[in-house]
Amino acid sequence: MKSYELIALMQPKERRRFAQRLQTHRRTVLQQLFAILCKQVKREQLPEKERLYQELFSEPYTPELDYKLRHELRLLNQELSLFLAEIQEQSEGTLTEQRYLLDVLAARQAWDLWDKTLNRAQRQAEKQSDYGHTCRLLAEQFKVLQQRRELNEDSLAEMRDLLQGAAQEQLKQTGEQLLDLRIRLSHTEVNLRYFRPDYPAQLPETYLPLELFEGEALHRFLDLQAQMYFLSGKDKIAVLQESLELHSEVASIRPRYEKTRNLSLGTIAMEYSMQRQWEAADEAYQELRPFFMEQKDLNNSMQVYNYMMNTLYLGKYHEVLELHAAYSEVVGPGHKMYYRYLYTACWAYIFLGENEKGLQLILHDNLQQRSDFDNYYARLQYAILYYQMGNWEQCERELLNMQQRMRYKKQELNKIFELQLEGLSRLLKIEWGAHSASEKQAQRQALLQEMEPKISISQQAYILPWYWLKKQLETPKKSPTSSQS
Amino acid sequence: MKTLALLAQLQPAEEELLRAQLKAHKRKKLYRLYICLSEEPDLTREELFERLFETAYHCKKDYKLRNELRLLNQEIEALWIEEERQNQLRSDDFRQQRAYFKLLLDREAFDLLNREWKRALQQAQEAQHFEQLGFLWELRFGLDFRTREVKAALFEDSKQSLQQARQYRYWQGVEGYLINRGRQAYVLANQHAITHQSKEQLPELPFEEELLEQHFLFEYLECIAQSYLAEGKEKLAYLERCLALQSDVEAIRPRFAANALPAWASMAVEYSVQRQFEKSHQAFQKVIPPWEALTARHLPIVYNYLVNLLYLEKWQEAQACVEAVWEILPPDHRLYARFCYMRCWLCLFQEEHEAGLDLLITDALQRHADFDNYYARLLFALLYFQMDDWESCERELTNMRQRLRYKKKEINPLFECYAQALSELHKRHIKPQTAQESAAWGRRIRKDLQEALAQEQGADLLFRKWIFQYLEQPKAQAS
């Protein structure tokens, strides 16, 4: 029942205000109906039609009389919708209210007060670069001028200025709306390409020529935000840097873009990181760090993950662990990034040689329930940790488990892990094998040479195992003294 | 004091409401301040301060009074704002719906929104309400993003929603721009009419002109704008197109119904200017109200209608028109003198010369701008001429010529031409000729006049009509 749903949306204070308002409504039955429904909402119990009818009209319900109840409910809904619309408008700021006041004063021809109110409203609209309001205020001025002044050279010149100003503001407003929607459409386009790689994603047209908005920081900013989706590398970074330069000006008039600064910085960092310019990426992340540490928000989880990865490449393992500690509660079990956070922190332990801690972190018994990626990644890290701990048997077992799963599940993902698996197995064979030190060294060298090109073409997300492997091949390990687990 | 100005605007019902609100207000001083100001508006600032704070006024304490006054102002303004908000939201269903839907989205009433969205879209489509359609498609996008699983299908639907939203937002902007453009054209046309400087054109459209073909509303609005600035056949073509689209436009924008009458009126006037008097007369039929419903608002167009009736020699209808106008025409109306002149023409053509003179005599000639002054004198001269009072006729022509010499204006040659023609007529009238001589003279003067009047912009058709009528049937020569 719509009335019930609407009342349930209202806060107690709003219900009281609405009840007060109904007192002046000439249809008193609405008051009763509202009171009954309020009780039901408090009880969280959807009212039964029959009982509601009986209570309201003090007669038994029959389907033939249902129209009476429907009619009252419809009237109540109308009043509720209007009331809720008013509440919404009240929250939308003072500019609309000033326009209402101007309408009231114009209707009463209180021109002195009207002029003062107009000045105040104009100042405010201009300060906020609120093109829509400025346009409406200018149009209102034009109408009032027509009413108050005779048509002569001066009044017509004034009217012309007002209308030209209003036309400019109108274009700016439409331009802003269209460019804002273009950003969302661009985002949709790249997502469609993500889901359907053959999808020809493209930057949507602007409708209005951008030359119309030359010198307008906001419009340029919005244009750049859309362009960004279709660029990569240096071009993308350049666009983002330009939008960052405009950011403070834009955010001062459109606070909703406040967050864009951090997103842009995060994307710049990500782009540098993709190009393996870890230091440059770190510069951007360092700017973001205070924000990440202060607002441990779920919305930051992806950016913080990227930050952790970049920090790993830079060898700042303690910083990685610090970030993980800060976000371990935010990105808890059940979150889609949960395991990735664990694996990233685990890499820090691996590179620090704190194998037990690494193992502790990722050792869970629900391996089979994880996605294939998470399953393979966990086994790979187990294998590495066991290898580092000198428990080569365990290491081999994990690798075998991985191989078995891969044989059982044929998929694209396997290719990446198969290579890493192969590298690790060969490493194990070299270290385990009964060869002389010089033979082992030669084998290591051969494997290293084979690995290099694979590392360079490897995707970002899968590069760390290669780093680790390279390190192992460059700095040989002593044979384990104990291989028993 | 602003508060006093605000209080002066309160209506009795509002006063009552404000009184009740202030009584219930936690800040008790506001009610006291209101009572003081409404009962004793002449209190000095010092007295007001003392009444309110029960202590002597000191300029250092003035801020306390200012603060109370500001708060009272806010209360009064808030009262009006809430009333106006309610009125405007009640009278604009689409606007109310937008605010209501925004609240539902904010309060996560997704099911309810989903149930209501489709019907709202249908309503907006029927009304071709671009702002509403843009809003609803944006809402669809927001709603989907908050309620559906992130899959390819979500983005496919999002793309459709956003494309629709963009198109309608664009159209909303175009509509607003074209309405403004129409107003600009109106202003430019008036500037041209007042300053007589060359007519300026509208700025180029900031979007592709083909867009005007995408919706009949755009074509309509552009035709309205262009019709203000075009002339002759071009103007008539724009107006005809506007009127052809009028009923479709009214169906989706009832407020544009008000455009029909001015369009018919412009068309009637333009046909008249083009000397297509019958077509003009037909167009006037759409505009001129029944005489019993005539109001001052109709007078400008009725004036043009009367002129056209005179051109068409519809004397009876002109007489009925004049009588109806004189029922409501205030003597201080800006068109009073012009109506007098037209009525005078009617008298002239109907040979009611005395009545014509009576009309002119009541008119204070010197008050008028040059054109009206000359015109009145010309009519005087014509009436005297018809009444064989050549002395008075000559006096009027001399007065006119003196003023013409004294005030050099664009219109001078035109009136010189009229005066010259009238003098020629009189000379011929007092100097007897044979029938042959008279016919030859008639042909010559007719030709000369035709050439002279053709060269003069705005040559008066009624004068020409009168003079040629005279040449066809000259009055008996003076004895």
Describe this structure in words.
The complex is a heterodimer of chains A (485) and B (479). Chain A has 22 helices and no strands. In chain A, helix 10 runs antiparallel to helix 11, helix 16 runs antiparallel to helix 17 and helix 18 packs parallel to helix 20. The longest helix of chain A has 43 residues. Chain B is an all-alpha fold. Chain B has 22 helices and no strands. In chain B, helix 11 runs antiparallel to helix 12, helix 13 packs antiparallel against helix 14 and helix 17 packs antiparallel against helix 18. Chain B is flat and about 105 Å long. Chains A and B meet through helix 1, helix 5, helix 6, helix 7 and helix 8 of A and helix 1, helix 5, helix 6, helix 8 and helix 9 of B.
Overview in brief:
The complex is a heterodimer of chains A (485) and B (479). Chain A is mostly helical.
Give the secondary structure arrangement, pairings included.
The complex is a heterodimer of chains A (485) and B (479).
Chain A: H1 2-9, H2 12-22, H3 29-42, H4 49-57, H5 66-90, H6 94-107, H7 111-127, H8 131-148, H9 153-195, H10 217-227, H11 233-253, H12 260-274, H13 278-294, H14 301-313, H15 317-327, H16 338-352, H17 355-362, H18 372-388, H19 392-408, H20 412-432, H21 437-457, H22 463-474
Helix pairs in contact in A: 1-3, 1-5, 3-5, 6-7, 7-8, 8-9, 9-10, 10-11, 11-12, 12-13, 12-14, 13-14, 14-15, 14-16, 15-16, 16-17, 16-18, 17-18, 18-19, 18-20, 19-20, 20-21, 20-22, 21-22
Chain B: H1 2-8, H2 12-24, H3 28-39, H4 45-53, H5 62-91, H6 93-106, H7 110-127, H8 130-147, H9 152-195, H10 216-229, H11 232-252, H12 260-273, H13 277-285, H14 299-311, H15 315-328, H16 336-349, H17 353-361, H18 370-386, H19 390-406, H20 412-430, H21 435-455, H22 461-472
